[in-house]
Write a structure and sequence with these properties.
12 helices; alpha/beta; globular; 12% strand
């Protein structure tokens, strides 16, 4: 977390654009089937492990990551940084009501000067160039995009050279949490890597299939990679 924050702060001060992404088991599985999503991840400047499963897999595959850096935790820290250093943020995503609540929360806590601009996440493909221009003219230092995957990853990778924002990242459902629409798992569940299960409990109809099949496929992919490593080392 501290390394990531330091890299981002330097990028903003140097006006050297940085594209950040977090990966979890579901995104890793989907990237095996979606080349555009995979490219949008690989092209990023900073990639953090959003899920405990990624950290566990990295250790199992002998390329251990130091820790999980959850997207929402990073966002909280970055907004604090922005407020303390006079940076401005642009918020893109979620329903209009949720978005306005997030803006209200931040303005109440940090003041009006923090927000460079905001827009809900319901836009069509043909509206994207105009949206990119809106973000560029806001002169924001940080852009947080709370849109579903892979739409947010592909949008950012497609338009990052036009946005003129030093730091950009996708934050998934973080706006819903900040607005109080959904709750994060208790810390003990987060530490055990069970945050996904808490989400299933909150939205069983939407989430059960995604996590049941997604997690199973991720375990299969990790096991297959481990077997490949064993055979390579034996030869």
């Amino acid at each position: 977390m501290e390394q990531t924050l330091a890299l981002i702060n330097k990028a903003i001060q140097d006006k050297s654009p940085v594209h950040h992404v977090v990966v979890n088991a579901a995104k890793m599985v989907n990237a095996q089937k979606d080349e555009e999503l995979k490219k949008s991840i690989v092209d990023c400047d900073i990639i953090n492990a959003d899920g405990k499963s990624i950290v566990w897999a990295s250790k199992f595959l002998n390329c251990a990551l130091p820790e999980r850096v959850a997207g929402i935790d990073l966002m909280h820290n970055l907004v604090d940084m922005a407020a303390s250093k006079g940076y401005k943020i642009f918020l893109l995503g979620a329903e209009q009501e949720v978005l306005e609540k997030v803006v209200e929360v931040y303005r109440t806590k940090y003041g009006d000067q923090l927000i460079a601009g905001y827009r809900n996440g319901y836009f069509k493909k043909e509206e994207e160039p105009e949206l990119a221009k809106q973000i560029e003219t806001s002169r924001a230092d940080m852009l947080f995009v709370a849109v579903t995957s892979p739409k947010k990853e592909i949008f950012l990778n497609t338009y990052k050279h036009l946005l003129n924002v030093p730091f950009i990242m996708g934050v998934g459902g973080s706006f819903d949490v900040i607005a109080g629409k959904t709750k994060r798992a208790p810390l003990w569940m987060q530490n055990l890597g069970m945050e996904w299960f808490y989400r299933v409990l909150q939205e069983p109809k939407r989430m059960w299939k995604r996590y049941l099949f997604g997690n199973s496929e991720f375990i299969y992919l990790v096991a297959k990679e481990k077997i490949k490593q064993v055979f390579q080392s034996a030869n």
